[in-house]
């Protein structure tokens, strides 16, 4: 049975010429809240785990110096705390996903053009981080996989849905969604503050998170990850939190 739409997506800078985006699994912040990526400001400095040590390990495993720079993984933001949008609670945590039949859901409600295009680029079987957003402590909580590639998002035609779009036509739908399935929880919660510390260090020394979209296009709820970005963040789950 479908559940209330809970994905939110605020129009990014590149989409200013488009109509104002309705929200999706989490991008536009609730009124009065600061943008989550700006709410945590860890000091710049060297990454304690040392991306060079991580890279050395990867080189010994693969025999290659660096992965090819392609986007083959994703980061999906969702709000774990209750918030009403047009009278509908848009809350959807990873525990809510786990409670669904077959631990599978459609990722509906995305109303940002760049995020929609990322949805359309997703391939069957690709993995993504499930990221809790717009909450007290945002960060990565688990891993999901794409189990159905992009198809029309039915909520754009539902006048009772907070993400209804009167300008979209069934013969040429504007908005798409994919189906995702729970894979596993990460071994520990990986907070935004920790990821940002590595990002700042990598900007200085050329590490894998130097251009991570979580910090260059903060407001997008659907974000691509390179193989290096995905693997580095995944490696953090085995470390003790700083």
Automatic annotation (TrEMBL):
Region Disordered, residue ranges: 1-62
Comp. bias regions, Basic and acidic residues: 10-40
InterPro entries named in the record: 5hmC_binding, EVE_domain, PUA-like_sf, THYN1-like_EVE
UniProt keyword list: Nucleus, Phosphoprotein
Family matches, as SUPFAM superfamilies: PUA domain-like
GO CC annotations, alphabetized: nucleus
Localization: Nucleus
Domain EVE: 73-235
Function of the molecule: Specifically binds 5-hydroxymethylcytosine (5hmC), suggesting that it acts as a specific reader of 5hmC.
Protein name, per record: Thymocyte nuclear protein 1
Biological classification of the source: Eukaryota, Metazoa, Chordata, Craniata, Vertebrata
